[in-house]
Design goal:
The chain has 241 residues and is mainly alpha-helical. It has nine helices and no strands. The longest helix is centred in the C-terminal third of the chain and has 32 residues. The N terminus is likely disordered.
């Protein structure tokens, strides 16, 4: 055991890099296109073909689309997770849906997923490119160090004010939803490219967003911890920058 650690080819850093690379390869399946079912098939036929999350995306919110699909066979599906939401595979081992409104939970999941998709992209871009003026203003700071520098310079206070202003509108929309409006979690009516014209296509894209958001939340946490331990961004840590 001790000899393996003394071997330069099996140093802790090398093993950590290998673990990160393998995790990225395994997580890449979240970006792979799912199995597309013909729109003419019934919901029942779609839900009886097997316990695959890929069978869920073709049906709109509010329509049964996977009540027989479970993340682990033999586990009883929570009452609140009835298969009406895109990406619902009955996963709630801690029973959050028994005490918190499911709409609130889905709203939080979508919101954090969207934020983390932006964050993960930003963390990667910092290692491969520098936008004009950024280096002159913030120097070589990145990741959480960049946050600290921006706070000292007053830039983060501006973001706090403007994002707080936008949150007011989001709060109003969420309250209306929880009070019984027909608004779906995460829907702010923002669709400049008219991607939601086809309901089945929209459901597919909703699943893609949800899965990528879930992956981005895990990736963001991982990249932050790598930076805390090594002081390097994700691409720099892997030796690709």
């Amino acid at each position: 055991g001790g000899a393996a650690w003394r071997d330069p080819g099996w140093s802790p850093r090398t093993m950590l890099r290998s673990s990160v690379a393998l995790a990225l390869i395994g997580a890449a399946s979240a970006f792979a296109p799912g199995a597309m079912l013909p729109a003419t098939k019934s919901v029942r036929s779609a839900t009886t073909q097997g316990p695959s999350m890929q069978l869920l995306p073709l049906y709109r919110d509010g329509e049964l689309q996977g009540s027989t699909v479970m993340y682990r066979p033999g586990v009883e599906r929570p009452l609140a997770l009835d298969g009406t939401y895109v990406g619902d595979i009955g996963f709630d081992p801690l029973g959050f849906t028994n005490v918190i409104d499911l709409k609130w939970l889905r709203e939080a999941e979508i919101k954090h997923g969207r934020v983390c998709m932006l964050a993960a992209t930003g963390m990667i871009v910092q290692d491969v490119a520098t936008f004009p003026g950024v280096g002159k203003t913030f120097g070589a700071a990145k990741m959480t160090e960049l946050h600290d520098v921006a706070v000292k310079m007053g830039a983060m206070q501006q973001l706090l004010v403007w994002l707080g202003f936008l949150e007011i509108f989001g709060f109003v929309a969420i309250v209306q939803m929880l009070q019984g409006s027909d608004r779906q979690p995460g829907d702010f009516g923002f669709d400049p490219l008219n991607c939601g014209a086809d309901p089945d296509t929209l459901a597919r894209r909703q699943l893609v967003e949800l899965k990528n958001g879930r992956l981005a939340m895990i990736a963001t946490g991982g990249m932050l911890h790598v930076y805390f331990f090594t002081g390097k961004g994700p691409i720099e840590f892997l030796g690709l920058a």
